[in-house]
TrEMBL record:
<protein>
    <submittedName>
        <fullName>Cytochrome c2</fullName>
    </submittedName>
</protein>
<dbReference type="GO" id="GO:0020037">
    <property type="term" value="F:heme binding"/>
</dbReference>
<dbReference type="GO" id="GO:0009055">
    <property type="term" value="F:electron transfer activity"/>
</dbReference>
<dbReference type="GO" id="GO:0046872">
    <property type="term" value="F:metal ion binding"/>
</dbReference>
<feature type="transmembrane region" description="Helical">
    <location>
        <begin position="215"/>
        <end position="237"/>
    </location>
</feature>
<keyword id="KW-0349">Heme</keyword>
<keyword id="KW-0408">Iron</keyword>
<keyword id="KW-0472">Membrane</keyword>
<feature type="signal peptide">
    <location>
        <begin position="1"/>
        <end position="27"/>
    </location>
</feature>
<keyword id="KW-1133">Transmembrane helix</keyword>
<keyword id="KW-0479">Metal-binding</keyword>
<keyword id="KW-0732">Signal</keyword>
<keyword id="KW-0812">Transmembrane</keyword>
<feature type="transmembrane region" description="Helical">
    <location>
        <begin position="160"/>
        <end position="177"/>
    </location>
</feature>
<dbReference type="InterPro" id="IPR036280">
    <property type="entry name" value="Multihaem_cyt_sf"/>
</dbReference>
<feature type="domain" description="Cytochrome c">
    <location>
        <begin position="29"/>
        <end position="127"/>
    </location>
</feature>
<dbReference type="InterPro" id="IPR036909">
    <property type="entry name" value="Cyt_c-like_dom_sf"/>
</dbReference>
Length: 456
């Protein structure tokens, strides 16, 4: 009996040790720290709840233990250097590599064992998401307030229109009374005699006041010519033009909220004449792993589902199968509506302005701004406006010949720029003599107003 009790106690102790050891596997990491590490290192390829480039990682520790009888030591080796693990002949490591189209996972030798334990703790027991009061709620409140204000304004407008109609009706009634009085007055003998001396038709009036008539006609002709000339001068000027695009792309979210550099997508602006519209492959570099919108910013009148649907539209055009994480080969070109389009007879080189003129254009533009809020930090904004604040891109300037010339006359040339220092090496001494030592050399001084610079 005593022996049985001893074994019973030993069994209880063993079971309790086993349970505590099992619990420590999942308690040895900090899920909150793991969440931060996961977002910083893993979200490009993984989520907890669904497959993207890599598998879903929610419950990966339990899954690996149940299906493959592998513990967290295997995960440590895989995360730190999966290539070395595969080359060692590990069967499951090679199976995973084959299953995901031989897409090699990045190695993370910089992550400590504690960091990896934190990440695994997060995948096992993720902390509850904090409720964030984002722009959506603010927008909803703003929309309701705006709706009330709009209703009040509409009611006021209705009252004004009714009052105006009553006033017009009263005026018409008064005019009818006056006309009736005039008709009665015209029937008197004195007025009949006076009417015989008055001009009663247009030809007679023109003969009597021919000089005045010719002057009025000449003045009207001048006004008409000015109107035609002014209309011709604004042909092809589309400031404010903001067409609807086949895929809704918000520069405010990408360039503004997420701080994506303009030249990451428009790489041609730095290396060529045309800045180019980025191909869908550029979009898919990010959106292979970003399949739904989770940002805080939401434009009034829209919701996160709207933005997510636009990503799905991108997938359809690019031929991306989200479930298989592979391209189908069935693509459909996106028919973007062009906004900025220089005439064929105008030569404009983006790289010349972005590389050689970057800092001077920024400095020249900012020097003209009285309001600090209008100042710019990247050269693109000097011509295209504050793109990072636009949900729908619009033409921010006139892009007329006069607008370009004015910029060339006021923008100083940076002669210490590596490009200009070499290109205008022989001109430096001549410009110093012509304009004086230390004087401001603007673009027009180096041929910025020559017709052949911009016109073929």
């Amino acid at each position: 009996m005593i022996s049985w009790r001893k074994h019973y106690k030993k069994g209880l102790i063993a079971i309790s040790l086993l349970l505590s050891t099992g619990a420590s596997v999942y308690a040895q990491g900090d899920p909150k720290k793991g969440q931060e590490l996961f977002k910083a290192n893993c979200t490009a390829c993984h989520t907890l709840d669904k497959q993207v480039i890599g598998p879903a990682l929610g419950g990966v520790v339990d899954r690996l233990k149940t299906e493959q009888n592998l513990d967290t030591d295997w995960l440590h080796k895989w995360i730190k250097d999966n290539k070395a693990l595969r080359e060692s002949g590990d069967k499951y490591a090679n199976e995973v590599f084959e299953k995901f189209n031989k897409t090699e996972m990045l190695a993370f030798p910089n992550l400590s064992d504690t960091d990896i334990d934190d990440i695994l703790a997060y995948t096992t027991d993720p902390p509850a998401e904090e409720v964030v009061a984002d722009a959506a709620s603010g927008d909803a409140g703003a929309n309701s307030t705006a709706a009330i204000e709009a209703q009040k304004a509409q009611e006021l407008n209705s009252k004004i229109v009714i009052a105006a109609l009553i006033a017009i009706a009263g005026l018409l009634f008064w005019l009818l009374l006056k006309i009736r009085q005039l008709v009665k007055l015209q029937q008197t003998p004195e007025l009949s005699e006076l009417n015989t001396t008055r001009v009663t038709n247009f030809s007679a009036m023109y003969e009597k006041y021919s000089y005045v008539g010719k002057g009025v006609v000449a003045l009207l002709a001048l006004f008409a010519l000015y109107g035609v000339w002014n209309w011709l001068m604004w042909v092809g000027v589309y400031k404010g033009y903001a067409p609807e695009q086949p895929i809704y792309f918000s520069h405010k979210i990408h360039a503004g909220e997420n701080k994506i550099d303009c030249q990451l997508c428009h790489s041609g602006a730095k290396y060529g004449k045309v800045s180019e519209i980025p191909s869908l492959n550029v979009c898919m570099n990010c959106h292979r792993s970003i399949s739904e919108y989770k940002g805080k910013y939401i434009e009034p009148g829209k919701d996160r589902e709207f933005y997510t649907n636009q990503i799905k539209t991108l997938y359809a055009h690019a031929g991306w199968d989200e479930s298989k994480q592979a391209y189908t080969g069935k693509t459909e070109p996106v028919e973007w509506t062009r906004i900025h389009n220089m005439p064929d007879f105008v030569y404009f080189n983006h790289s010349q302005h972005v590389v050689a003129g970057e800092q001077t254009i920024i400095n020249g533009f900012n020097a003209k701004q009285k309001d600090p809020a209008n100042k710019i930090d990247v050269v693109c904004k000097a011509c295209h406006g504050k793109i990072d604040t636009m949900n729908v891109v619009q033409m921010a300037n006139n892009f007329t010949m006069g607008w370009c010339i004015d910029c060339h006359r006021t923008t100083e040339v940076d002669m210490n720029n590596g490009y200009n220092k070499e290109y205008f090496k022989n001109l430096h001494d001549k410009l110093k003599k012509q304009y004086g030592e230390g004087s401001k050399i603007t673009v027009d001084a180096i041929g910025g107003l020559e017709c052949g610079k911009c016109h073929y």
